[in-house]
Amino acid sequence: MLTLSICISTFRRADFLGQTLDSIISQLRPGVELVVVDGASPDHTPQLMAKYLSSHPQIRYYREADNSGVDGDYDKAVGYARGKYCWLMTDDDLLRSDAIEKVLSALESNIDLVVVNAEIRNADLSEILENRRLNVAEDLEFRVGQEEEFFSLSAIYLSFIGCVVVKRELWLSRERSKYYGTLFIHMGVIFQNPPIAGVKVISDPLIIIRYGNAMWTGRSFEIWGFKWPQLIWSFTHFSEHARQAISAEEPWRRLPWLLRFRATGAYSITEYRRHLASRLGRSRWTMAFWAAVLPAPLVNTLVVIYFGLIGKSGKSGMYDFLRSRHSTATGRLVARKLGFYKGFISR
Questions:
Q1: Beta-bridge partners for 119
Q2: I need a surface site. Which of 11, 266, 287, 300 has the fewest CB within 10 A?
Q3: pTM for the whole thing?
Q4: Domains of the chain, with CATH numbers?
Q5: Count of other CB atoms within 10 angstroms of residue 192
C-alpha cells in the first residue's frame, strides 16, 4: 500500500490546475500518488491532464461522465485512492516545496488526521493576506477527550478542505452520504461521532491559498447563511457555546452580518426573496428588506471605512470588500491610506 494519495476534485479549473499540479509533482516520491477526479469539466481539463499523464506515471486521472458535486467527487477520489492516507487537496492552491516531506513525517506516528496550516494570498498570489490562517505557533496533538477543544480551535479553518490529510480507512468507515450537498463533506466526516482518536496540527503553513477564487463565491450568502450554520449546529455532541463561537445558528438575523454581505454584492433583493422573506417576522422583515435595497456602493464604502478604522476585519476581509464590483473610489482611498490597498485589486 502507498503511504499518501493526494486527492484533487476539480471542475472547470484548467486555468489554475496546471500551477497546482506543478507545485505537487516536483515533490512526488515512491509511496506517494496523485489522484485527480474531474467532475465532467466543460473546459480543456482533459487536454491539460493528458500532457501531465504522458510524463508522470504517479498521476491517475478519472474523468466522470457526470458532475457529482464537490462532496461526491472528493468521496470518489478517496475511493479511487490507494494510499493509507488521503490529502484532500484543492485544484487552484499551491503546496510549498517541503509540504509533502513534512506531512509524511507527521504521518509516521500513525495518526488518524493531520490538519495542515496555510498562508493566504490574493487571487494572483502577489500579496500575502495572512501568514498563518490557523493561529498556532507550534504543532499540536489532540486525543480522545479533547474533541471539543479541537473543534473550537480548528472548525472555522477546516471550512478549507485542502488542509485535510485523513486516514483512508477512517474516511470510508464514517457516514458520508448525509453530507452530500453540504459542500463540506470533510467536516461531517471529521466531526461526527464517535470522535477521531488522534489528530495532529502542523503549525507551519505548507499550503498557499489563492483567496477569493472559490467556485461558490456567487452562492456565498446561501452557503455562510444556511449550509454552514446548519452543518455546525448538527454536531449536537459539542456544546452550544462551542458551536455558537463557530457560527450563529441563524446569522442572517443580524443586521451587521447582512450589511457585510450587501457590501460585497452577495446579498440583494434576490437573496432576500429567495431565502428570508418567508422566514422573518415584521420587524426583521423590515431590517432585512432595507439591508437588501440599500445602495451597495454606499454600504461598501461605509463598511470599508468602519472595518479599516477598527482593524477587525483583517486583510482577507478587506480584500473581499475592495474587490467587490461595488467598491468605490472613496473606499479605495481610505483603504490605501490605511495600508490595505496595494496588490488587492488592479484599479
A1: 208
A2: 287
A3: 0.94
A4: 2-210 (3.90.550.10), 220-337 (no CATH)
A5: 17
All three cell numbers of 203, joined, read 503549525
Tell the residue number behind the cell numbers 472613496, with chain if given: 330
Amino acid at 78: V
- pLDDT, one tens digit for every residue, the chain (347 residues): 899 999 999 999 999 999 999 999 999 999 999 999 999 999 999 999 999 999 999 999 999 999 999 999 999 999 999 999 999 999 999 999 999 999 999 999 989 999 999 999 998 999 899 999 999 999 999 999 999 999 999 999 999 999 999 999 999 999 999 999 999 999 999 999 998 989 999 999 999 999 988 766 678 999 999 999 999 999 999 999 999 999 999 999 999 999 999 999 999 999 999 999 999 887 877 899 999 999 999 999 999 998 887 766 667 888 889 989 999 999 888 888 877 766 555 44
